[in-house]
Write a structure and sequence with these properties.
- The chain has a domain at 52-174: Rossmann fold.
- 33% of the residues lie in helices and 33% in strands.
- It has six helices and nine strands, in the order H-E-E-H-H-E-H-E-E-E-E-H-E-H-E.
- The strands form three sheets. It has a five-stranded parallel beta sheet with strand order 4-3-7-8-9, with helices on both faces. A two-stranded antiparallel sheet has the order 1-2. It has a two-stranded antiparallel ribbon with strand order 5-6.
- Helix 3 packs across helix 4.
- The protein is globular and about 40 Å long.
């Protein structure tokens, strides 16, 4: 499958979560066996090309794609979690959202000093969550140089923000608007 084959499998829901937003729903792609397998294969090719040693997925849909790619390539998977989900001492980072703040956590023992970690999530919008995840993984000793996404919303500037932080960004699909 090609990225062009995958794009029509992603449902667009207007005015969610608020008026004027076009929500890109990847659950329809995940529900299509051929489409999901194709997306995992395309993402796996990109991870192989950049020399990743582990994949870190951002909760929640980053777990789905990241874990599938990690299993496909025989790599370790590092979950970047929402607060209170890990049963061990964690590293945490607070980051700004449009209306408030949120927190991400990681088990530092899961990262490994100097390990080449590829960050993965389903969608890149403003980049705030991905930037926080990258910083958290770096604090835990990870070498984060690449971030991969199924979908990028380029008009929201997330890719540019990640590149400014020294992270190469790739997405399989771009959608105009937000």
């Amino acid at each position: 499958m090609t990225p062009e084959d995958l794009k029509p499998l992603i449902r667009t829901i207007p005015d969610f979560p608020k008026p004027g937003i076009l929500f890109r729903d990847v659950t329809t792609l995940m529900g299509d066996a051929r489409g999901f397998a194709g997306a995992v294969e395309l993402l796996a090719e990109k991870v192989s090309a950049c020399g990743g040693e582990a994949i870190a997925g951002i909760e929640a849909r980053g777990f789905i794609f990241g874990a599938a790619v990690a299993a496909r390539l025989g790599l370790g998977f590092i979950p970047v979690r929402k607060p209170g989900k890990l049963p061990v001492p964690v590293l945490a980072i607070d980051y700004a959202l449009e209306y408030g703040t949120d927190t991400l956590e990681v088990d530092p023992d899961a990262v490994g000093e100097g390990r080449r970690v590829v960050l993965m999530d389903d969608l890149l919008a403003t980049g705030g969550t991905a930037l926080a995840a990258a910083e958290l993984l770096r604090r835990a000793g990870g070498d984060v140089r690449e971030a991969l996404f199924l979908v990028d919303l380029p008009e929201l500037g997330g890719a540019a923000r990640l590149r400014e932080a020294g992270i190469a960004v790739e997405a399989l699909i771009d959608f105009p608007g937000h």
